[in-house]
Amino acid sequence: MTQQSFIRNSIPLPRHTYEGEEYFCRFAPRIHRDARLSDAGSWQCQVDFLKSSNDARAGADRNKDVHSYAVGCINPVVGNFTALCACEALSDRLALTTYLVEYAYIHDDVIEYSEKKDESHLQKANEQLMEGLTLEGDKSRGPKSKDHVQRRQLQAKMVMELMEVDKEQAKETLRLWKEMSDVFVQIRDMKFTVLDDYLKFRVVDAGCPWTMSLLCFSMDFKLTREEEKQTADITSAAYDSWVLVNDYFSWEKEWSNYQSNGATGVVANSVFLFMKWHSIEKEEGKEMLRKEIISREDKYCSLKDDFLAKGAATEKTQQWLELLDLVTAGNFAWSMTTARYRAGAPDVYPALWKHCADKESDTESLGRPI
């Protein structure tokens, strides 16, 4: 008997917004009916983070000529990242979910565009951005600066609201967030010789397990341990394809940053690895990546079809596979069109910032619920 779809809160994304040569994904994206709530969550996070901290404002000013700096989920072409990937979220959890994803994007940029790029400073910046996103409380000693207090207030707000909604899922999300932040710095110093080894780390670095934990929170959805085990290989194949899609569309931005930094070190991107491993130019490396994405998506679909053909899928595991399809499509459409990756793409962030530029701070927003 065919299981009933769990589609309730989303509509198909208009085809004209994403169809074209660059959209070589086989799945069709959908978007949440209340997508405006995602944009509201994104913008509140931007105000809370960047307008309540002198350090944050200094970083934004220093990087004002970097077109993608602090560009998060909002995308005027296809819609907000979370509205696409969490298109079946409960409406009352959509803004909070997006707020957390937006913070993660800002976190990445604060590290990526740090004024001091040696490992000790990057580790310190990473710790400051994550120190309050645990259940362990404040372990720091000595007097606290105003920036420190406000940063901790912001982090505490996220933790508190997550815990109030779903304590157990919140704990898992926070655990995976810390795991992601730890790998984010480590991966830049690692040497890889085969793609699968790279993907094991890159999947965590890109936040795939964390993102899915958060999307499950947004939907009040949870697999049993046995169901997770049954679908683990399929899930892993989906994660691999998402990471490679991210590499594909973010490549030009990352290559430009690499050149600006003196072309030293490595780029955590599979195009860079292909260039190194096969002694090829970047154009060939990107074409090789395109073929790899198609191959990995084929593998995902094959594993999924084999699993379903056995007839042992529960209602929850079938819904999980449907969710993976939706995220595959949403991530692809968003990554292809976002100003975060693509220079010259439509971008609403400058206009949003201009709207509140007359205010040096907005600390009152930290006290407002998400």
TrEMBL record:
Pfam name, any one: Terpene_syn_C_2
Organism of provenance: Fusarium equiseti (Fusarium scirpi)
UniProt protein name: Fusicoccadiene synthase
